[in-house]
Amino acid sequence: MAEDNKGNADAQAAGQQEKPQLQFAVQRIYVKDISFEAPNSPAVFAQQFKPKVGLDIDTNSSKVADDLYEVVIKVTAQVTHAESGTTCFLAEVQQAGLFRISGIEGDQLDHTLGAFCPNVLFPYARECVDNLVNRGGFPPLMLAPVNFEALYLQKKRKDAESAEQAPTAH
Predict the structure, then answer these.
(1) Which pTM does this prediction carry?
(2) CA distances for 78 relative to 69, 91, 146, angstroms
(3) Could you give the strand order of the β-sheet that contains 87-102, starting from the edge strand earlier in sequence?
(4) By the 8 A CB rule, do 117 and 152 touch?
(5) Total domain count, the chain
(6) Residues with Cβ < 8 Å from 40, sequence gap 6 or more?
(7) Which has the closest alpha carbon to 120: 32, 2, 30, 21?
(8) In a domain, 116, yes or no
(9) Mean pLDDT of all residues in the chain?
(10) pLDDT-based confidence at 5, cuts 50/70/90?
(11) Quick check: 140 pLDDT over 80?
(12) Average pLDDT, stretch 51-61?
């Protein structure tokens, strides 16, 4: 009886070794690039601040080494005066992170890099933009939360439509 239990334990251990170990860990979060411009200062400070915010967010990822991936969120905020159209400031942040990911492959890995990792990084990018804008002498710019899941699905849909519309070679 004891031998049967030991045999089952050995079989379970062998089965666990065959499956890749699922692992997700943040190795490092860092600013890859940062820029702030206030091309019309100090004149822009003489106007009543009526901002019109233009926001652009992009993500990309690359494999750095085995099971190590870099994910970068690029946030660009351009604020112009709502009435005059004068540029108040332009803030750009590339917030990056190194993620150790193993046991996830294919579409699931793509989803993790395209939606989950950017969700981890966005609060850092948001704080960095706010800090830059504040240091530039402007009122805080608190960016609204971003649904990276929806952005990822939208990008996948757009890629699928592009693939369908591409001419096929015969």
Answers:
(1) 0.80
(2) 29, 6, 17
(3) 23-37, 87-102, 68-81, 51-65
(4) no
(5) 1
(6) 86, 87, 88
(7) 30
(8) yes
(9) 88
(10) low
(11) yes
(12) 94
Tell me the pairing of strands 87-102 and 23-37: antiparallel
Angle at 48 between CA 46 and CA 54, to 5 degrees: 110
Spatial separation of the C-alpha atoms in residues 61 and 125, rounded to whole Å: 16
Q: Evaluate whether residue 12 is within a structural domain.
A: no
pLDDT band at 80 (very low <50, low <70, confident <90, very high): very high
How many Å from the N-terminal Cα to the C-terminal Cα in the chain?
65
Strand stretches in 38-161, DSSP E:
51-65, 68-81, 87-102
pLDDT at position 22, please?
A: 87
The pLDDT of 48-53, averaged and rounded, is 89
- Give the mean model confidence (pLDDT) for residues 47-65: 93
Domain that holds residue 31: 21-138
Name the token pair of 169: 């070679």
4 by Cβ neighbours in 10 Å (0-12 / 13-18 / 19+) ranks as exposed
Strand partners, 92: 35, 76
Helices (H) and strands (E) in the chain, counts: 5, 4
Where residue 77 sits, what CATH number does that domain have?
3.10.420.10
